[in-house]
Amino acid sequence: MTWNAVPERRLLVIEDDYFWADELRRALEDAGATVLGPVASVETAMALLRSEPELDAAILDLGLRGVQAYGVADWLLARRVPILVITGYEAEALPPAYAALLRLEKPVSTAAVLTAVETLFPIP
């Protein structure tokens, strides 16, 4: 797959499923992205965001170890960081504030994630 729209992008992966997060990290790196994380908790995500404020986008699972990651989403939105939500929740279960976010429902393939990430960035 040629990933022309997002080479060398800095992407934060926030996902609590270790195996899926690692698979996603490898696919993104193979496509040319620099991956921050993956991180598996709200606390770790917020610490990383405070120390690494330069992000091109984030891939976010809103349910992390039983904790809703709405604070992480709000932080990213306030800084206009594009977000791809990957979740097991149906769209109707998400708060209205996140209705406009690009969302994929689990289970999802890495190919679908790469395609979705490309849409976060305008093609020059």
From TrEMBL:
InterPro entries: CheY-like_superfamily, Sig_transdc_resp-reg_receiver. Residues 10-121 form the Response regulatory domain. It comes from Methylobacterium radiotolerans. It comes from the Bacteria. SMART domains: REC (SM00448). The keyword ATP-binding does not apply. Pfam families: Response_reg. Keywords: Phosphoprotein. This is Response regulator. The modification 4-aspartylphosphate is found at D61.
